[in-house]
Design brief:
By secondary structure, this protein is mostly helical. The chain is built from ten helices and no strands. The mean pLDDT is 85.
């Protein structure tokens, strides 16, 4: 599953980068999402696979804090990029005549850069908050990676400030993007309903179908983690549910976008064809005197 996730997302990035017809805001954000998905899975899964192979579940304290930082960074970037992509679809459907004016390359690059900066600062803040905690010896984290909430629960010192910062961050950086996505799609639905032709409605909805599928998968599995944490034996149930949005969702994203998108499928065919053998080898026969 890890190899499929990495190779699938990498192939999507290479196909978008190699085809000049896909150098548009929508595919620019999509390629960034694929890169972030590769990084997200690579933050947790390789260590888990090493643990399975060596039968050793140990991780150093520095390695654990580092994993917390990068996991928060890439999970937050996933969240922000899905929000930016929802805004891009809103502009494309509700303001098609002004799309190229609004979604300029400079604005697209700025949106991605701001997403990186905000999530890097938030991840750094949470990691520094973990460093101020003191831990007892022989700790066991009931998870397959160093998850922030589990780290805070295992601390021997006062965790009130850490919980405040964590829940504030989840509400602001998690709930805020979700609210923006819901608002964008509410405006999109109202615009689609106002279209006179059924063909125009179908075309407009089809451009959002892939993104809606990915958003539903990402937030559905993330919500499942939080719901499972309230159940008995919540730690192990949360670990099992976390596999969905850390491994399964990044693995399915390339398939969702490529199977439902004609442009992506054609770009993938051209990219695979360009890297393969161009044609048969011709053997020239000459008659010797």
């Amino acid at each position: 599953m890890y190899l499929v996730a990495v190779l699938g997302n990498l192939l999507l990035v290479l196909a978008v980068g190699s085809d000049s017809r896909l150098h548009t805001p929508m595919y620019f954000f999509l390629s960034n999402l694929s890169l972030v998905d590769i990084c997200l899975t690579s933050t947790t899964v390789p260590k888990m696979l090493v643990n399975i192979q060596t039968q050793s579940r140990a991780i150093t304290y520095a390695g654990c804090v580092t994993q917390v930082y990068f996991f928060l960074l890439f999970a937050g970037l996933d969240d922000f990029l899905l929000t930016v992509m929802a805004y891009d679809r809103y502009v494309a459907i509700c303001h098609p005549l002004h799309y190229t004016v609004i979604m300029k390359p400079r604005l697209c690059g700025l949106l991605v850069l701001l997403s990186w900066i905000m999530n890097a600062l938030y991840s750094l803040l949470q990691s520094l908050m973990v460093l101020r905690l003191s831990f007892c010896m022989d700790l066991e984290i009931p998870h397959f990676f160093c998850e922030l909430n589990q780290m805070i629960q295992l601390a021997c010192s006062d965790t009130f400030l850490n919980n405040i910062v964590m829940y504030f961050g989840v509400g602001l950086l998690g709930g805020g993007p979700l609210a923006a996505i819901i608002y964008s799609y509410s405006k999109i639905v109202s615009c689609i309903q106002g279209m006179p032709s059924a063909q125009g409605k179908h075309k407009a909805f089809s451009t959002c179908a892939s993104h809606l599928s990915v958003v539903s998968l990402f937030y559905g599995t993330s919500l499942g983690v939080y719901l499972s944490s309230a159940a008995p034996h919540s730690s192990y149930a949360s670990a099992a549910a976390s596999v969905m949005y850390t491994v399964v969702t990044p693995m399915l994203n390339p398939f969702i976008y490529s199977l439902r998108n004609k442009d992506i499928k054609e770009a993938l065919k051209r990219f695979v064809g360009a890297t393969g053998i161009k044609g048969p080898v011709v053997l020239e026969m000459r008659k010797f005197p």
